[in-house]
Write a sequence for this structure.
């Protein structure tokens, strides 16, 4: 299913709520944007299609955060990293299920969807994380 | 004279508050102290009549529940009536204010321009400041997923360690050096030397960055006054010339960048500034670089061309970036020891350069300093500004 809707970050997260990792492909130059953008930064086209992206990738870099804003303090220390997916797209996020000494640049990780009940007015974006 | 090209603008005066805690003062009140110093240093300047525009770097409304800081600071500096604009580019807010001041001066619209910056931070908790600083990073993919500001630089440090073998000890050596310089600067927030052991023993903030790898939460303000080179001698016998200026941007999100071990905005800004000044890195007698984290200073050595890519750890180890080395870096103490009131940092770097190039840097004076560079970074590197300065008298 290629999906519908505007090529926005809001829409990206709506797909994510339905456990779909989607990106916008420019119909003019073919560049794939994740997060999607309403204006192609390569050719300035505004015409896109949704494409489904594999959540499998490898860890490019990471850190373990000990000092966090209020909202994340209960989780400290927690690992975050940047993962390069099989498509070449890069995406940051929390890494779960691994101890610090198990984290290795280049290791295989997969994106997992987290279901959550969000009571804030804005934003109501779901979260995701990476797992081995 | 080396690098004898035509200057872009001349600095005729400069002011900076003590960096540290200014309990009970608002940002505008702190800024007035920096303005007063700059006015006092330049008795031939009539501030109310001569200053034709003002650009003020300031990062966050959240600190004081106060926006519109351009007007607030002009008001409290006694300059009501002039065009005044706040520039916001996170930690590079006043580096880009300086660039805006150069645009204004060169455009011919304003012969004398005050550029500066201010931030009041210490009345907030560390958690609050962590949250406000993170606002300079991407919200939907970085902040939303718990990635802090130290976390972004930590991820760059991790990648650099992996790729080039840079060590936590080398980062700590940067802190030791900058605290030594800070001990020589009466306006620095921290004026005590630290040991390598203490730096290495400090607790982690975002691995591999420890508390002693982080710059300080500080209150302070700074400013410089610019004019056209042909007017400079009307105001002072010892102008400092700006001979190169560069500013560049990068993707807001760190994750979208081509490199995780260098800042392209720094490289682009440096290239612009070096080309404008017809200069090369080895021409610099000293530099003030953006050490928001110790690792950021190491990365700056590489991005500014002070050493080959991957060799910044070795450069700090060699001692050549310490006072009396071949390229002293952050003689002010840097963001690490002088402190980092984010909006004030860019013009505080220019203030240090003004003192150094006019021989007024006291115990930390670099001998025969004639040419220097400042490097100011916003956020995790989505903005950078580089300026090159020359003493002409």
């Amino acid at each position: 299913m290629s999906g519908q809707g505007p090529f926005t970050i809001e829409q990206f997260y709506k797909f994510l709520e339905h456990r779909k990792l989607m990106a916008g492909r420019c119909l003019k130059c073919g560049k794939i944007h994740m997060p999607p953008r309403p204006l192609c930064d390569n050719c300035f086209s505004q015409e896109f299609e949704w494409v489904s992206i594999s959540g499998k990738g490898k860890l490019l870099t990471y850190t373990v955060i000990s000092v966090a804003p209020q909202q994340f303090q209960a989780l400290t220390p927690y690992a975050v990293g940047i993962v390069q997916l099989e498509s070449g797209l890069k995406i940051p996020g929390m890494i779960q299920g691994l101890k610090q000494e198990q984290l290795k640049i280049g290791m295989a990780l997969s994106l997992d969807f987290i279901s959550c009940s969000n009571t804030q007015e804005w934003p109501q974006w779901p979260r995701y994380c990476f797992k081995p | 004279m080396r690098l004898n090209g035509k200057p872009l603008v001349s600095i005729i005066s400069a002011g900076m508050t003590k960096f540290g805690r200014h309990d009970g003062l608002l940002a505008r009140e702190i800024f007035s102290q920096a303005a007063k110093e700059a006015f006092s240093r330049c008795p031939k300047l009539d501030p109310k009549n001569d200053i034709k525009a003002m650009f003020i770097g300031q990062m966050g409304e959240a600190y004081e529940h106060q926006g519109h800081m351009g007007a607030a600071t002009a008001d409290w500096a006694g300059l009501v009536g002039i065009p005044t604009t706040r520039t916001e580019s996170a930690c590079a807010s006043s580096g880009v204010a300086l660039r805006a001041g150069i645009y204004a001066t060169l455009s011919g619209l304003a012969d004398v321009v005050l550029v500066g910056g201010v931030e009041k931070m210490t009345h907030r908790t560390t958690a609050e400041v962590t949250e406000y600083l993170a606002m300079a990073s991407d919200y939907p993919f970085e902040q939303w997923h718990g990635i802090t500001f130290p976390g972004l630089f930590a991820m760059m440090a991790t990648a650099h360690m992996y790729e080039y073998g840079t060590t936590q000890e080398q980062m700590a050596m940067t802190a030791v050096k900058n605290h030594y310089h800070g001990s020589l600067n009466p306006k620095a927030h921290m004026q005590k030397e630290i040991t390598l052991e203490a730096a290495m023993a400090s607790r982690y903030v975002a691995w591999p960055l420890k508390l002693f790898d982080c710059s300080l939460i500080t209150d302070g303000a700074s400013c410089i006054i610019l004019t056209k080179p042909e007017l400079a001698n009307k105001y002072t016998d010892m102008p400092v010339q700006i001979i190169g200026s560069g500013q560049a941007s990068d993707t807001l999100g760190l994750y979208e960048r081509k490199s995780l071990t260098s800042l392209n905005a720094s490289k682009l800004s440096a290239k612009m500034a070096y080309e404008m000044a017809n200069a090369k890195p080895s021409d610099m007698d000293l530099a003030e670089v953006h050490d928001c984290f110790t690792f950021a200073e190491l990365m700056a050595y590489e991005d500014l061309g002070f050493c080959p890519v991957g060799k910044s750890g070795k450069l700090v180890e060699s001692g050549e970036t310490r006072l009396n080395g071949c390229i002293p870096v952050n003689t002010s103490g840097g963001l690490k020891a002088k402190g980092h009131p984010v909006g004030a940092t860019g013009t505080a770097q220019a203030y240090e350069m003004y003192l150094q190039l006019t021989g007024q840097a006291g115990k930390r004076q670099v001998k025969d300093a004639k040419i220097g560079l400042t490097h100011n970074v916003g956020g995790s590197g989505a903005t950078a500004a580089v300026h090159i300065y020359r003493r002409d008298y």
Remarks:
- Chain A has one helix and eight strands.
